Structures are given as structure tokens and as C-alpha cells.
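STRUCTURE:
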């Protein structure tokens, strides 16, 4: 369908923007800030709030005067991407094109708020509560799995076998993440054994999950005679993407926080008493935004790996690059971490630049292993091509 043929949908988009702005103006005039008006008791109400964060107020309590600016920029980037798909969509499906119009109209309405006011006027509340960490973790996991299945299909893998692999590797990775968290804080849990039950609701440590998943993968590959290099190349971009969303979940929950940042211009502060109770994150203190650092770097890693996957020179190259890139990312971010429960080989939290944490030790080992993999996979590929 041509752009001219979509004129009616442009009109729908303008109507949505007008309704969005008019309803927000009406609420701001008639409902005092932070006040509510019940519409359906126990289910739905109008609650006038100023949202300086993302959707559903994610990251609003994370502080940092620059966060609204970053979210505004990301919203504009997303708007440009959706607009591109809308303008270039050949579809004549009215429902699909109407959905595009609603999305664009709502997004533009919120961007107008952010540019004009510095925040979005929110007022619809349906009494639905869910954990932001769990939501972002699940979203990242879902996107990672979908991406992995797409690549598995392109590699002509048996999707039934691949489904079994995904299920068990996720289960054992979760177990490994919790076990490493227990091991690195063993003294604490021996002193307070009742606290072990909270491992059921914690996310655990990423490296624990990665190691457990890798060990299971080795066994699974041998059992089903799969190519570990192909499977690794499929996994690399998915791991980077899922991990990026996981770190955004950490930001929303308050865990994996940074050291005190002093006058660092990009510092963030947390103000949620619940986050402090659940994770121990310091409140009203300027901290390095380590969760954002790692999330952004993982997104960059995902882009690099996606490009490398299309241009890979030999099987296994993408997975080796994933390990190489992530170990450098994590090793660097560790210097800015403020949560002390990761454990140290030597030194400690008071001297981060002259200390070595357990994750950094794993990074050193992983970095060396990645270099070895790159060299050996390349040689193996050259040997196969000469047969």
C-alpha cells in the first residue's frame, strides 16, 4: 500500500495524539497530583502521577537526572523504527495498519509530554501489580529463545531436540546461578541459614548460570551428536540479548548496584524502601549506574555478534567472540560494582582498583579460553575445508 493510501491511518494517528493530550490536560486540571479517583472499585481508577521513567514507571525511582533524557532518546529511536515499518509495510490488513496508527499516536503523545514537561502525565491504574525484575527477565528470555529458534531453523537443526536443549539448559542454568550465589556467600548463609530460602526468589549470579549451562551443553551435544560450534554460534547473540534485558531488570529491582559515585555526572540514586529491604541497595546515595553500563554494553555486544553471525568466517567464531567480549565487559564493570556479595580472591570493596573479585577471576579464565577457542576453531575449519 502506498503512503497516499495510508492517509486514513495518519488521520487516526492524529486523533489519538489529540485524545492523548486532551485527556492528560483534563486529568492535570481536575485531579491533584498523586490523588486518585475510583472508577471501578477494587479494579480500576484514575491516579494522577508524573512518570519520569519508562513504561509503567520502570526506572522512575532509580534517580539520575539524565535517565529521562536517555528514555526520551530511546523513545524517539523506537518511534523512527516503527514509523519506518509502517511507511514501508506492503500490508493491506486494516487491523495491522490501525495498530501501527495507535502505537505511533500514543508514542508521539508521550514524546510531546517528555519534551514539553520533562515527564509523562500518567493516570490509568488497573490495580495490576507485577515484579519489574521478573517481567524484564522473562521478556529478555522470551526474545532470546525466539532468536535462538530462528537461527536453529536456519541451521537445519532438529527443532524437537533443540526444544529439549533449551528447556533443560534454562533449568540447570537457573540452578547453577543460585548455587554460585550460595557458594560465594557461604559464610553468610552458614551464619544465617534461614536466609537460604530467599535463594528461591533471587536471580542468582550470571556466571553460575553460564558455567552450569555450558557443562550441560557439553553433555547434551555428545549425547545427540550435535555441532558444539554451531550451537554456540546460535547461543551467543541470544545470551547477549537476554542478559541486556536482565540487567535492566536489575536496575528496576535495585540489585547489582554500583559504588558511591561522588559527583559523577551520570550517577543514579535509589529511593525505594522495598528495593533496599529486598536487595540492600543504598538509598539517596549517588551510585555508579553499573546495571545500565552492563545493559548497554550487552546490547552493543548483541549487535556485534549479530553482524558477526552473518559474516562469520568459521563455525564457533561467534560464540568465542561472545565469551571474549563479555569477559571484557564484566571485568571492567566489576571495578564500579558496590554490592560486596560477589566475593573476592584478594582485596575487597574498600580498594576496588587493587582487588580481584571472583567474577573477575572467571573473566580472566574465560578471556584466555575465548582466545584459545578462536584459534582452535579457525584451525579446525581450515582442516575441514581441505578435506
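SEQUENCE:
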Amino acid at each position: 500500500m502506498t503512503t497516499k493510501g495510508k492517509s486514513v491511518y495518519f488521520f487516526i494517528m492524529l486523533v489519538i495524539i489529540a485524545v492523548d493530550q486532551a485527556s492528560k490536560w483534563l486529568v492535570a486540571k481536575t485531579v491533584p497530583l498523586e490523588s486518585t479517583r475510583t472508577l471501578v472499585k477494587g479494579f480500576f481508577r484514575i491516579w494522577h502521577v508524573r512518570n519520569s521513567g519508562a513504561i509503567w514507571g520502570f526506572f522512575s525511582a532509580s534517580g539520575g537526572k539524565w535517565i529521562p533524557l536517555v528514555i526520551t532518546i530511546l523513545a524517539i529511536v523506537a518511534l523512527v523504527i516503527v514509523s519506518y515499518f509502517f511507511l514501508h509495510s506492503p500490508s493491506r490488513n486494516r487491523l495491522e495498519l490501525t495498530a501501527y496508527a495507535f502505537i505511533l499516536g500514543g508514542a508521539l503523545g508521550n514524546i510531546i509530554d517528555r519534551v514539553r514537561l520533562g515527564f509523562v502525565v500518567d493516570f490509568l491504574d488497573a490495580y495490576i501489580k507485577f515484579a519489574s525484575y521478573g517481567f524484564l527477565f522473562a521478556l529478555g528470555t522470551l526474545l532470546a529463545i525466539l532468536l535462538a529458534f530462528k537461527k536453529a531453523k536456519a541451521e537445519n537443526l532438529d527443532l524437537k531436540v533443540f526444544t529439549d536443549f533449551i528447556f533443560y539448559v534454562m533449568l540447570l542454568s537457573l540452578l547453577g546461578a543460585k548455587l554460585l550465589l550460595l557458594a560465594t556467600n557461604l559464610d553468610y548463609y552458614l551464619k544465617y541459614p534461614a536466609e537460604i530460602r530467599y535463594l528461591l526468589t533471587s536471580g542468582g549470579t550470571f556466571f553460575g548460570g553460564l558455567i552450569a549451562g555450558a557443562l550441560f551443553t557439553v553433555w547434551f551435544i555428545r549425547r545427540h551428536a550435535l555441532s558444539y560450534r554451531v550451537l554456540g554460534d546460535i547461543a551467543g547473540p541470544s545470551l547477549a540479548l537476554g542478559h541486556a534485558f536482565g540487567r535492566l531488570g536489575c536496575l528496576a529491582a535495585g540489585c547489582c548496584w554500583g559504588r558511591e559515585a561522588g559527583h559523577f555526572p551520570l550517577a543514579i540514586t535509589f529511593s525505594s524502601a522495598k528495593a533496599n529491604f529486598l536487595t540492600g541497595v543504598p538509598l539517596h546515595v549517588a551510585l555508579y549506574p553499573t546495571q545500565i553500563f552492563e545493559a548497554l554494553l550487552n546490547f552493543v555486544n548483541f549487535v556485534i555478534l549479530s553482524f558477526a553471525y552473518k559474516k562469520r568466517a568459521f563455525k564457533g567464531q561467534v560464540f568465542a567472540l561472545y565469551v571474549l567480549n563479555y569477559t571484557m565487559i564484566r571485568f571492567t564493570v566489576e571495578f564500579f560494582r558496590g554490592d560486596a556479595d560477589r566475593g573476592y580472591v584478594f582485596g575487597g570493596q574498600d580498594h576496588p582498583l587493587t582487588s580481584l573479585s571472583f567474577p573477575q577471576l572467571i573473566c580472566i579464565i574465560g578471556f584466555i579460553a575465548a582466545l584459545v577457542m578462536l584459534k582452535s576453531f579457525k584451525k579446525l575449519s581450515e582442516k575441514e575445508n581441505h578435506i
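REMARK: The longest strand covers residues 44-51.
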